[in-house]
Amino acid sequence: MIIGAAGSGKTHLIRSIQKKVNFATIADERVLPRRGRVKDVPNPFRKQASSSRIDEAISIVKLKEKINSHLADLSPSEASAACLLPVFCTESQVVIVDMLLDWVDLSLANAVIENLKQKATLGGTVIIATHSPEVLKHADEVIALRNQSISFQGTLTEGLSTVGPSKVTVMSQKFEAIRQIVDPITVNVEQTEAGATFELQDPSSIALTLLSKGYGDIKAVTVSQPTVAQFIQKWI
Prior knowledge:
The protein is α/β, with parallel strands linked by helices. The chain has helices spanning 10-20, 51-60, 76-83, 85-89, 106-121, 133-136, 156-161, 176-182, 205-213, 228-235, and strands at 2-4, 25-27, 94-98, 125-129, 141-146, 149-155, 166-172, 185-192, 195-200, 218-224.
């Protein structure tokens, strides 16, 4: 997936990919004709796709009940869904979706992504430009753009590791004197090849002893992990 702020170079990168791969299918807002009905959108693909395939595509993007609706009457979310139709009407091995999944409801976005994953499983390549953390959670590889250049490239797991380590906070409840020393204790958790490494932010020997010996009642243990939203904020 590709992420980046407005003007970061997403569209330029997508157009470059499209030029290099002549058989790519691109889905963006330019797919929709200026007039007509939803049922007219797949017309350019009817020579390539069977009627059953087109019907399936319309079902995937959840526009079956809108099949006879005028395009001008669609909501922004429905119009974006209609723009996705070419993706499922062709046999193209390379599919590019430019920001459309950000403009549809989350349930539809997830349904589209699951169908695109099936295409990828069969050897296809799916490229999605997005700003949405919920969409990005599905990414295998991520390219982040900033000021017309790549600021990050790698897996989402690698990207999350750049945000910072996970944190475990232990809250004690009783023994007021002890609680003053150890409440809260925040522990950095860093994943390594050998396993997880725990490190106290304030490695007081007293706090470490009390925590390890189990003195006092534990009120709560919270685990805070880096989020996709933090990753996006860091790299775009």
